[in-house]
Amino acid sequence: MHYNLAQLLREPTGSTRDYEVDGSFVGPEGGMDRAQGWVRVVRTHQGFIVRAELETQVSLTCSRCIDRFESRSELTMEEESFPINDSETDQTIEFAEEQQGEIHLDDQHVLDMAEVVRQYVLTVVPIKPLCCEECSGLCPECGTNLNKEKCKCNTALVDPDGGLWRSC
Predict the structure, then answer these.
(1) Domain shared by 69 and 140, yes or no
(2) Are residue 110 and residue 149 in the same domain, yes or no?
(3) DSSP for the chain, written as a single string
(4) How many domains does the chain have?
(5) Predicted confidence band of residue 58 (pLDDT cuts 50, 70, 90)
(6) pLDDT for 146-155, tens place per residue?
(7) Structural domain range at position 126
(8) Is there a single domain that holds both residue 108 and residue 30?
(9) Which of 38, 80, 82, 121 is the most buried (most CB within 10 A)?
(10) Are 90 and 162 contained in the same domain?
């Protein structure tokens, strides 16, 4: 997900480039996840507006049964990007304070979308991911995945107030 924008940087404000996205990025759990879709880069007077619509496929761990599962989501992104070097003088550009958090092109005028996509994916991944809403989780006594088999434990868990929580 690297895009060389050196030529677009030399073009007038309003010039665009469209790119298809079909690539990998490091996902929220450190594995290689996928993104597919499109990116449109529009030249502005200082840099670029980067718009994208992506479908992502992320591998997550269920918080109840600890099995791995695939989660799909659709992302719509719009970010402003600035080169770190002036295209004419090749000098490093000092950015105004309001531009400090933006995405910058590297010194070769390459935009790397992988980190931006990872950050957007983090906003849609649930804090407590579940493989399915009905996930039964693990038996607290023997650790059996209750989605796959019924365990042989015959103990009932009791809460501190004396009521039953659940039987295996």
Answers:
(1) no
(2) no
(3) -EEE-HHHHTSPTT-EEEEEEEEEEE-TTSSEEEEEEEEEEEE-SSSEEEEEEEEEEEEEE-TTT--EEEEEEEEEEEEEEEESB-TTT-PBPPPPGGGTTSEEE-TT-EEE-HHHHHHHHHHHS-SS--SSTT---B-TTT--BTTT-------EEE-TTS-EEEE-
(4) 2
(5) very high
(6) 999 988 886 5
(7) 2-135
(8) yes
(9) 121
(10) no
